Amino acid sequence: MLTSVCAAVQLVACGGGGGHGSLPSTTSTSGVTQLWILQGPGLEAQAMATNPEGIAFFSNPSITVMYPVRANVGAPSSWRVLLWQKYTSFASFQSAIQTGMVPAGTNVVGYDDEAWSLTPANEQRDPVGYTIRFAKLAHQNGYGMISMPSENLMQAMFPGQDKFASFITYGMATSVAPYVDYYEIQSQDLETSASSYASFTQTIVGQVHSANAAVIITGGLSTSIPNEPQITPANIDAVVAASFSSVAGYWLNIVGATDPIAFAALANLP
User: Fold this and answer.
1) What is the distance between the alpha carbons of residues 203 and 209, in angstroms, rounded to a whole number?
2) What is the model's pTM?
3) Taking the alpha carbons of 128, 23, 92, 163 in that order, is the dihedral positive or negative?
4) Which end of the chain has less neighbouring CB within 10 Å, N or C?
5) What is the CATH number of the domain that holds 44?
6) H-assigned helices in 87-232
7) Residue 102: its pLDDT value, please?
8) Residue span of the structural domain in which 254 resides
9) How far, in Å, CA of 259 to CA of 43, rounded?
10) Does the residue 11 lie in any domain?
């Protein structure tokens, strides 16, 4: 089982006790050294929670799983979990707050802003500003907050330039770090090159922690990358080996019917 040398994952205080983000003692992450993120309501959450290999991997007591609060299948009782809800726009999160529609039991809310139809154009043009607004609103209502911006936001700002280099230059990670609790690096598009993946990940980790050393950071993994050859378990294992000393864990994305790739990759981790 992979063991990160990162500092232990700690729960973030969000507006004091008794808020929506308050956790029962059974989900405390005290002493936990890894954080893995699964998406739902189906997708990788259902795949991992119903497969013996996935159940066994995430039952390791050093792992906390950020698990969807709305899931087709509940998390196994052997897992330590933080329940989370993802939003792809500040507008949708703000509306959920105003109408009382954030799911009961939510501990953490995520802002997945990307250059796509799910994130409004005005938010795409000001990703730093809207991330800060999202984080402040989350904390005001007792939730932890995870920022998970896509590097493709840079393509409109810096046309024709490499999105990863532009993201570093733009400095978004540094700018939002003082306001967030968790940060997910969408590094999965670099999976075919372990050295590039590790270099980008380490740079963003440095930017985040230069502004807020308390932020818990994960990398991104995927079983399929657009416009790239088929990802193999070896690709995933290589980028984990190259980067796990820098991050607390990973968001594991399973695309389509590629569950076997994910299970094989997890089985090969040391």
Assistant:
1) 10
2) 0.90
3) positive
4) C
5) 3.20.20
6) 90-98, 121-125, 127-140, 154-157, 163-170, 172-176, 194-211
7) 98
8) 25-268
9) 9
10) no
